[in-house]
Amino acid sequence: MGYKDINFPKGTKFLVTGGAGFIGSNLVEVLLEKGCFVRVLDNLSIGKKENIEEFMNHENFEFIEGDIRNIETCQEVCKDMEYVLHQAAWGSVPRSIEMPLLYEEINIKGTLNMLEAARQNKVKKFVYASSSSVYGDEPNLPKIEGREGNILSPYALTKKVNEEYAKLYTKLYGLDTYGLRYFNVFGRRQNPDGAYAAVIPKFINQLLNNEVPTINGDGKQSRDFTYIENVIEANLKACLSPHESAGQSYNIAYGGREYLIDIYYALTKSLEKDIEPNFGPDRAGDIKHSNADISKAKSLLGYSPEYSFEDGIKLFIEWYKENL
Ligand SMILES: NC(=O)c1ccc[n+]([C@@H]2O[C@H](COP(=O)([O-])OP(=O)(O)OC[C@H]3O[C@@H](n4cnc5c(N)ncnc54)[C@H](O)[C@@H]3O)[C@@H](O)[C@H]2O)c1
Fold first, then answer.
1. Do the strands 226-227 and 185-186 form a parallel or antiparallel pair, or are they unpaired?
2. Is the overall model pTM greater than 0.85, yes or no?
3. pLDDT digits (tens, 9 = 90+) for 66-88
4. How far is ligand 1, taken at its centre, from the CA of residue 272, in Å?
């Protein structure tokens, strides 16, 4: 069962940080459809107002432009909230290697501020975005919680520290925290532009514009690409999970494994583009292969992802063609 049948009492109050971004705005859309009240905190540093434009006049929606680095703002936005879905952060491994200090400020301090504000305001559940990058150089596949390697980037380190703080907040203060280690999420509203864009929207956009995409490395790297619907399901199910499942982190993926080069040719085929890629150097901080064991999330959160990579990519391309 996915998330379609999950319901919350009408007007249940959610705070989505980073709600103007890719994953956050998708969470907002689904929660509003379910009759919940949704407050978004976002400083629009990376996210875009156009991602939430359609919700602005919704009676159950409130947008607060502000920064998770400011503790007063965090305390203010947590007031009266029942659930916090904390997505705000700066992503991208290569960018974090360029600006480690900023990542410390935003991802570590910002998340600690949110944990503290959630605790003070007695929210029921604090569900937050972690990342598969916490597995670092661990070579064994599939990646399984509890078997992590050495961290390879400041970004990954920030997510690891987030997990440690969240665990402590559950242990010391009884705040129910759930860390969701997303694996390469893709889907509607994902930003295709810029040097730090995720690979799938970037390739689709470039191919549609008849540009030649560059694959970093030989294209034989593999990832557990995860469609956005599965991530929404994980967030909603974490909110409904018992206290016993709190204070832990969970792999959130489909449990598959796609090679970048195969994805490239699947995209050229479905977009009917006869364009050969360029090949560039490997990216620092990247791992060669990643796929997830999702049995922990299945058994403790009731997670059961419904969308395979193939299902997701079909839907994403359809959306892309209609919306851009
Ligand atoms: N997309 C993925 O594949 C993926 C994979 C693993 C983890 N994650 C994590 O999931 C979360 C959401 O990712 P996304 O892909 O939607 O990214 P995104 O960049 O689209 O969204 C992040 C949002 O956070 C906001 N934000 C950044 N700094 C802020 C600050 N200081 N104060 C308030 N808001 C701020 C941005 O403006 C943006 O709207 C992030 O924590 C990211 O690290 C994403």
1. parallel
2. yes
3. 999 999 999 999 999 999 999 99
4. 32
